[in-house]
Amino acid sequence: MADGDLFDIEGKVYHLADFRGKYVLIDFWSEGCDPCRMAIPEMKEIAEKYKDSLVIVGLSLDGEKIWKEMSTKHGITWYNLNDLKGRSGIAAKYSVSGTPHYVLVSPSGTMTDKTTGYCKGSLKEFVGKYLDNK
Q1: What is the pLDDT of residues 31-55, one digit of tens each?
Q2: Which fold has domain 27-109?
Q3: Angle at 92 between CA 86 and CA 96, to 5 degrees
Q4: Cα dihedral angle (79, 102, 128, 50), rounded to 10 degrees?
Q5: Do 57 and 16 meet the contact criterion of CB atoms below 8 Å apart?
Q6: What is the C-alpha to C-alpha distance for residues 45 and 68, in angstroms, rounded to an integer?
Q7: Backbone φ and ψ of 66, nearest 5°
Q8: Among 9, 25, 62, 101, which is most exposed with the fewest C-beta within 10 angstroms?
């Protein structure tokens, strides 16, 4: 899986490889993206439903100040990280051209699927087709 230094809002460094052994849903988002904000309640439901088999990693494409403000404002409870490189960092490695952009990585670290955009129920369907009955 494409990886790099990813920072949380306190400055702790993570890598996507840290989450091997579980499915990882990478959520590329940005402050100016209405569908990204609309997806937050559904993301919270998914985080709870699949807490034993799925790690959610939100990767903001915003600059540090906006990212931290939005993280606090929206009460994001999953890993909320940023490589501070915008679209030229890890987002480029996953060919992110718009937000929201979701990538599902298998427990072994290979990309399972990806999708762009959001409408109500689409995340549950996207994740459920791989994690239901696991």
Answers
A1: 889 999 999 999 999 999 999 999 9
A2: Glutaredoxin (3.40.30)
A3: 90
A4: 0
A5: yes
A6: 22
A7: -65, -45
A8: 9
Note the pTM of the prediction, 2 decimals.
0.92
Rounded average pLDDT over 18-40: 94
| Amino acid residing at 132 | D
Query: Is residue 73 scored above 90 in pLDDT?
Result: no
DSSP string, 23-62: EEEEEEE-TT-HHHHHTHHHHHHHHHHTTTTEEEEEEE-S
Considering only CA atoms, which of 52, 74, 65 is closest in space to residue 27?
A: 74
- Domain positions in the chain: 27-109
pLDDT number for residue 130: 94
- Strands, DSSP E only, in the chain? 6-7, 13-14, 23-29, 54-60, 79-81, 101-105, 111-116
Half-sphere exposure of 85 (CA within 13 A, CB side): 13
Residue 134 has pLDDT above 70, yes or no: no
SS3 breakdown of the chain: % helix, strand, coil, rounded to 5? 35, 25, 40
What whole-number distance in Å separates Cα of residue 86 and Cα of residue 40? 20
